[in-house]
Amino acid sequence: MELNLENPWTQHMDVAGSQITSYEFKPLAHATKALTSLTLDRCESSSNRLRGILDQCLALERLHVHVLEGSQAVWTLFKNGPWACNKLQELVLDRIVWSSGDMRPGDTLQDTLRAMWNALHQLGRLRVLTLKHVHKVDGHGVGMHLLGAIDWFGVSRRIERLCMTGHGPWTNRNLIWITEHLPLLQEMEYNEEAMDKIQLAWLQERHPDIRLTVAANAKKRY
C-alpha cells in the first residue's frame, strides 16, 4: 500500500502495515509540514527514516509507533539530541526492539537509556507517555533497567498520563520518584503482575488523586 502524499496540508495520518520506502520517505518528510498526528502500525520503516520524519514534522503533537524492529532502533531514534518536533504532547512507543550487538562500539545500555530519557525530558509539552515492551532481543531485556533509569534521568514534569508495561516489577524507589517528580500526573497504567498489593495500597492512600489502571491483556515479559 502506497502512502497518500497528494495533500501537503494533511493533519492526521494513520499508516497500518505499509512499507515506507526510500522513495516515499523524502516526500513524506517534506510534504507533511502541517501533520499533527501520525500513527505507524507494523510499518516496515527503519528508525533512521522515522527520526527523519520527526525532525521534519515540526507541528507534530501525537505520535503512535507500534512495532519497530531493526538495527539500533532505540539509539537511532534518540541520539544526537532532542527531536525537532518539540510540540509533541502524546508519545506511544509499543514494542520497540533492538539488539545490544547493533549498538556502536563503546556504547552501553546505560548510554542508550541516557540518550532516551534525555530526549524525552526535552519534550517540554509532553503530557502522555506510553512505553510498552521497549526491549532488546539478545536475551537480556531492558526490564528494570528502563524503570530504574527514571531515577537517573527523569521525564517532563508535565506528564499527566504514564503507561510503562512489560519492563519488570516496579520498585518502591520508582514509585516514590514518580509521585514526587510528576506533580501533574493524573493516571498511571501498569501490569497487574508488576506491582504488589502493598505498593498499590501505598499509592492509593498516598496519592488518591492518581487514577491507577490495569493494562488490558498485559503479558509478563520481563
Overview of this structure, please?
- The structure is a single chain.
- The protein has 222 residues and is an alpha/beta fold.
- It has one domain: Leucine-rich repeat, LRR (right-handed beta-alpha superhelix) (Alpha-Beta Horseshoe).
- The chain is 31% helix and 21% strand.
- The chain is built from seven helices and nine strands, in the order βαβαβαβαββαβαβαβ.
- Strands 1, 2, 3, 4, 5, 6, 7, 8 and 9 form a nine-stranded parallel β-sheet that branches.
- Helix 6 links the parallel strand 7 and strand 8.
- Helix 1 packs parallel to helix 2.
- It starts with 11 loop residues before the first strand and ends in an 8-residue tail after the last strand.
- The model has no long low-confidence stretch (mean pLDDT 77).
Helix vs. strand class: alpha/beta
CATH class: Alpha Beta
* Range of helix content: 25-40%
Which topology does CATH recognise?
Answer: Leucine-rich repeat, LRR (right-handed beta-alpha superhelix)
Q: Mean of the pLDDT scores?
A: 77
Span of the ends, CA to CA: 35 Å
How many structural domains?
A: 1
Question: Mind telling me the C-alpha Rg?
Answer: 18 Å
Number of strands: 9
Count of alpha/pi helices: 7
Short description:
The chain has 222 residues and is of the alpha/beta class. Helices cover 31% and strands 21% of the residues.
Please describe the topology of this protein.
Blueprint: E1 12-16, H1 22-31, E2 37-41, H2 47-56, E3 62-69, H3 73-78, E4 90-98, H4 109-121, E5 128-132, E6 135-136, H5 144-153, E7 161-165, H6 172-181, E8 187-190, H7 197-206, E9 211-214
Helix pairs in contact: 1-2, 4-5, 5-6
